[in-house]
Amino acid sequence: MSCVRVATWNVNSVKQRVARLLPWLDQRQPDVVCLQETKLTDSAFTELLGGELAGRGYAMALHGEVQWNGVAILSRVGLDDVVTGVVGAPGFPLPEARAVAATCGGIRVHSLYVPNGRTPGSDHYAYKLDWLAALRDVLAAGPEVAIACGDLNIAPTDADVFDPDAYIGQTHVTPPERAALAELTALGMRDVVRDRWPDRRVFTYWDYRAGMFHKDLGMRIDLVLASGPVAERVRAAWVDRQARKGTGPSDHAPVIVDLDEAPDGDIGPVVPPPSAPAAKRGSTKLPQSS
DNA sequence: ATGTCATCCTCCGGATGA
């Protein structure tokens, strides 16, 4: 029985993360990968990883810039109708590389890097809220079979931060940010990890400083929001904490979601034809850590 | 601990972003 594995990962510089990203792809075998904070131009990304990814069967949709931001979608189940950016979104002051969308295996996939907001009340905070409003309009106008993945830079509830008191006066937890996120879920987009683990302490980001990961003092700000028809197909949804361990990790962990085949079979062939065999899920060059 | 890690450049130490 085939399924589609979708993942999202803020890699905090793909150039600095090659030694983690490629083994992770081989180990976890995602079919669709949304990346954020690639921090590379499209040409530099292609030069760095184009060959390695093509060799693993991935097509790429890239939207990067020289220094900051940058998003991508990797897919080995098709990659069509690529759109970069969010129509109507503001810049700061110029447009930033924070969104790319593509249709992969019959699903409209969005890789998102929402502005941080820096300080409540700041210009950047207003930018974050305006950007989210534009995103809402794009999702509202888009296909019904959709999944919006990425670093939303919002902790949906107080259960999504290690200590609500530690975040008083900080971004990521303020009512206007949570209201902006609620406008996305009001479109019918489900937070599939929280749906799966309603009572679990689950984070996706831990500050590099002060041993925050070791102490599990983090936040859940990397989300997978799935429209109803996709949410119904979710068979697994989890945070890959292994990828946050060891040498040279990102400060974010990947989120991985497995989807059952679409009931009417409209997702296309997810098993390549015999002429183009791909690695079987679970076969890995790396030891599978526990 | 203003704690770390990433980016850039009046370019190897400091400013900035997260």
From TrEMBL:
Binding site for Mg(2+): N10, E37, D151, N153, D251, H252
Site residues by UniProt (Interaction with DNA substrate): H252
Xref: PROSITE patterns: AP_NUCLEASE_F1_1, AP_NUCLEASE_F1_4
SUPFAM superfamilies to which the protein is assigned, alphabetical: DNase I-like (SSF56219)
Cofactor dependency: Mg(2+); Mn(2+)
Residues flagged as site, Important for catalytic activity: D222
Domain Endonuclease/exonuclease/phosphatase, chain residue ranges per copy: 7-252
Coiled coil region boundaries: none
Cofactor binding note of this UniProt entry: Probably binds two magnesium or manganese ions per subunit.
UniProt-listed CDD domains: ExoIII-like_AP-endo
Catalytic site: Y113, D151 (proton donor/acceptor), H252 (proton acceptor)
A family per Pfam: Exo_endo_phos
Transmembrane recorded as keyword: no
Biological processes per GO annotation: DNA repair
GO molecular function, one term: endonuclease activity
Alphabetical list of NCBIfam families matching this protein: exoDNase_III (TIGR00195), xth (TIGR00633)
Family of the protein in this entry: Belongs to the DNA repair enzymes AP/ExoA family.
Protein name listed in UniProt: Exodeoxyribonuclease III
